[in-house]
Task: inverse folding
């Protein structure tokens, strides 16, 4: 039993490690279809893995684990938004002197807008359905 | 929430935006970051004040809505960051303009991957 528990845990670590290695190879080759294929494959394999683990009864998703997931998502989002906000401000000013940072500024700004729209949109959606 | 309290939010936003424009014109990163920091502190204090006077009611349902929307936002954001990292990394090999975007999206990915590990470990311990 201990061995089987170790095995399913190990697969959980193997998936991201393999994805990262294959992604690194795809990026090094400059092969866009392969890189996006690896990403899509990783999403699919992760989904299949979680279904497989659930079927085996290894992961019991209860109210506590759900709450932990949601609270850690909240904290992560707060940190990511903070990092994004400081990046946008810093890059907006620095990109005036260093034009090479222009693309990083556009990217940070686009992500900031996306997060804001998602937060407002999803809050509105859940207020209606809950 | 009453109109005057919405006006309060508007004033905070205008002050932070004004400070940011000044910082941008002067080319001072320090002033820009300080403006943002000040804005965050004032906004938090104002939110606490509104909660205290009963203008903002935070109940169990609102908390659940917030947490559910955060969880979904996180998933979409994670996938978007991964996609931007891959695309900018490949595009930057032919066009150096996207080099900084590729590096920054890599850093975002790093932050995105690392923070949940610590957050989960913390909440598993305290809950």
Result:
């Amino acid at each position: 039993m201990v061995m089987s528990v170790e095995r399913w845990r190990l697969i959980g670590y193997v998936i991201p490690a393999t994805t990262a290695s294959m992604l690194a190879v795809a990026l090094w080759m400059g092969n866009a279809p392969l890189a996006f294929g690896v990403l899509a494959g990783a999403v699919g394999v992760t989904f299949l893995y979680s279904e497989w683990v659930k079927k085996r009864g290894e992961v019991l998703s209860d109210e506590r684990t759900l709450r932990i997931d949601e609270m850690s998502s909240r904290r992560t989002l707060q940190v990511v938004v903070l990092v994004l906000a400081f990046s946008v401000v810093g890059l907006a000013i620095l990109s005036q002197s260093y034009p090479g940072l222009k693309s990083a500024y556009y990217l940070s700004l686009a992500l900031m807008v996306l997060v804001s729209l998602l937060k407002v949109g999803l809050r509105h959606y859940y207020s209606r359905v809950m | 929430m009453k109109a005057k309290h919405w006006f309060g939010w508007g004033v905070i936003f205008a002050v932070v935006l004004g400070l940011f424009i000044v910082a941008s014109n002067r080319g001072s990163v320090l002033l820009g970051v300080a403006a943002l920091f000040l804005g965050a502190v004032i906004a938090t204090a104002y939110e606490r004040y509104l909660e205290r006077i009963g203008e903002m009611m935070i109940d169990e349902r609102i908390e659940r809505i917030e947490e559910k929307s955060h969880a979904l936002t996180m998933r979409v954001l994670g996938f978007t960051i991964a996609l931007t990292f891959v695309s900018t990394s490949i595009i930057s090999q032919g066009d150096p303009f996207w080099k900084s975007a590729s590096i920054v999206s890599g850093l975002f990915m790093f932050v995105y991957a690392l923070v949940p590990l610590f957050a989960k470990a913390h909440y598993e311990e305290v809950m």
Observations:
- Helices of chain B lie at 3-26, 29-52, 60-94, 99-126.
- The radius of gyration of chain B is 19 Å.
